[in-house]
Specification:
It is built from 2 helices and 9 strands, in the order H-E-E-E-E-E-E-H-E-E-E. With 264 residues, it is of the alpha+beta class. The chain has a domain of 117 residues: Ubiquitin-like (UB roll) (Roll). The strands form 2 sheets. Strands 2, 3, 5, 6, 7, 8 and 9 form a 7-stranded mixed sheet that branches. It has a two-stranded antiparallel ribbon with strand order 1-4.
């Protein structure tokens, strides 16, 4: 009897031990599974961290590259602006130097003319720096034409304006007839204006018939080469083959647009 009871107790103990062992094994398996499940989660976090870091690095590189490109563009703009400033400075300097050279040449020529000229006839002194020479000059020889209308009638420019009455000298600006052609004959090329001719006419040849209206500054309509001229007509340049038409109180006057120069 005692052996049977003891056997039963041992069996009960074994029965109690076995479930505990099974439970322990089950718990270990569950822990292993949990540990196995936690590893992929840690790797995912690491990958996300790396990805975020990589994205930040890429964004930083893109920002730096954009900044460098913008800096290069700014440098290119500055270089272009500097080149343009340098170019315009060089052009300006060339223009200034050329103007100085032309001025010096013109001044020297003018001085040379003045120093080489002599007053041939004291009754005909220089007018506006224009001399009355013994002979007509040929170095510079051009012509302009002037038509004058006063009070509705044409007023002819007299012949021999600018030529001494005794034929002793010829001003560089003069007329040979009443056609209105002004001869410009000087020892060197130079510029003349219509006022130079009027000064000669009024100063030494007024007896040939100098219209007082030419001293008026208003009441005139003036054309040059057929186009209206609104400035002071005394300042009109006497260029080669210039056509000057002047009308004082003379409506209906048509400006000259052509003239038969006949080789002049």
């Amino acid at each position: 009897m005692n052996k049977r009871v003891s056997g039963n107790k041992q069996g009960a103990k074994n029965a109690q031990v076995k479930p505990n062992a099974a439970s322990s094994q089950s718990s270990q398996n569950s822990q292993s599974k949990a540990n196995a499940g936690s590893k992929p989660s840690s790797q995912s976090v690491q990958e996300q961290t790396k990805s975020a870091f990589s994205n930040r690095q890429s964004a930083r590189r893109a920002t730096m590259q954009a900044a460098k490109q913008q800096h290069r563009l700014e440098e290119q703009k500055i270089e272009k602006r500097t080149r343009l400033i340098t170019l315009f400075s060089i052009i300006g300097a060339i223009v200034v130097v050329a103007a100085v050279i032309v001025g010096v040449i013109y001044y020297n020529n003018s001085q040379g003319i003045a120093q080489s000229e002599a007053i041939v006839n004291p009754s005909y002194p220089p007018v506006d720096g224009i001399y009355c020479d013994t002979l007509e000059q040929t170095a510079y020889h051009v012509h302009a034409h002037v038509s004058i209308y006063i009070n509705g009638k044409q007023s002819l420019i007299p012949q021999y304006v600018g030529i001494a009455s005794d034929g002793s000298c010829y001003y560089w600006l003069h007329t040979h007839d009443t056609t209105g052609v002004i001869h410009m004959e000087a020892p060197a090329s130079r510029s003349f204006i219509f006022g130079n001719f009027l000064d000669e006419w009024s100063a030494h040849f007024s007896s040939l018939g100098y219209p007082p209206e030419l001293d008026f500054t208003t009441g005139w309509k003036v054309w040059v080469d057929g186009k209206p001229y609104t400035g002071n007509f005394r300042n009109i340049p006497l260029m080669a083959h210039a056509l000057i038409t002047m009308a004082y109180d003379s409506p209906g006057v048509k400006p000259d647009t052509t003239y038969a120069w006949n080789g002049l």
